[in-house]
Task: inverse folding
């Protein structure tokens, strides 16, 4: 049985039985390729969320109007990526089997693979909408197949061609962009093409996994991340894109790659909290 966490994200205090959305944290960053610290992202978001209002003037909705259960952070093995992924996958399956929407808080982006494994078993026709600065399509990183630099490549192995839709991508090896041109639906630099992509997926009624790597934001907006890349989108552009994606048949989602200690001003954590609030409200609608 899932028990409530003592410190929850603001407004997410429903019981597991009542909730339609369940938050679960994966404080894992053992494969981070540059600056570590994303393991502290989920707890920082919970703690700092109380600087937010539960009401969103962007959507005229309030977290108090919806039912969200915060199941807290998993205790993960930092010495084994596969063991950590197995525990994350098990939690995702438990939430899905209860008929609820799993929303994962990372952690580094590798945690997405565990959730996708669980969601793809329930929804074999799954597509992924991926917001990120990085393609994450390397076959390996320094010999490791399980890395946040490889997570979408591993997801492609599960789903196959043309079922991963990537936006804001502005960094990667040449081979990653060549792979994307042949196997994924990649939209570099911006959200251009997002409305058309979502419309097509909605018309086909396919299930969608929505993964947000917060480094899709420009580092002038969001410096508190392990691998910042200049040239990202603005906060308001991201919020508009989240509302667009929410009109598709989104069945699971995640927000990841906040490393709070890398931005001692706290602005990045505050931004991540607001992104999560807007995502919760958009999905619930």
Result:
């Amino acid at each position: 049985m899932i028990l409530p966490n003592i410190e929850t994200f603001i407004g997410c205090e429903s019981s597991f039985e009542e909730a339609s959305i369940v938050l679960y944290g994966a404080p894992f960053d053992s494969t981070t390729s540059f600056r570590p610290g994303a393991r502290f992202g989920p707890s920082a978001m919970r703690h700092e969320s109380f600087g937010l209002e539960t009401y969103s003037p962007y959507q005229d909705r309030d977290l108090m109007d919806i039912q969200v259960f915060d199941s807290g952070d998993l205790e993960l093995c930092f010495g084994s990526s596969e063991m950590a992924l197995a525990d994350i996958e098990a939690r995702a399956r438990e939430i899905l089997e209860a008929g609820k929407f799993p929303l994962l808080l990372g952690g580094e982006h590798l945690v997405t693979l565990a959730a996708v494994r669980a969601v793809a078993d329930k929804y074999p026709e799954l597509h992924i909408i991926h917001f990120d600065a990085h393609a994450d399509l390397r076959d390996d990183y320094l010999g490791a197949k399980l890395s946040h630099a490889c997570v979408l490549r591993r997801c492609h192995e599960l789903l196959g061609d043309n079922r991963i839709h990537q936006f804001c991508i502005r960094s990667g090896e040449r081979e990653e962009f060549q792979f994307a041109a042949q196997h994924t639906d990649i939209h570099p630099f911006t959200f251009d093409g997002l409305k058309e992509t979502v419309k097509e997926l909605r018309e086909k009624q396919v299930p969608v996994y929505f993964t947000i790597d917060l480094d899709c934001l420009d580092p002038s907006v969001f410096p508190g991340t392990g691998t910042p890349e200049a040239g990202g989108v603005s906060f308001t552009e991201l919020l508009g894109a989240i509302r667009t994606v929410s009109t598709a048949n989104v069945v699971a989602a995640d927000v990841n790659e906040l490393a709070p200690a890398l931005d001692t001003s706290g602005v990045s954590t505050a931004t991540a909290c607001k992104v999560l609030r807007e995502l919760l409200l958009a999905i619930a609608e």
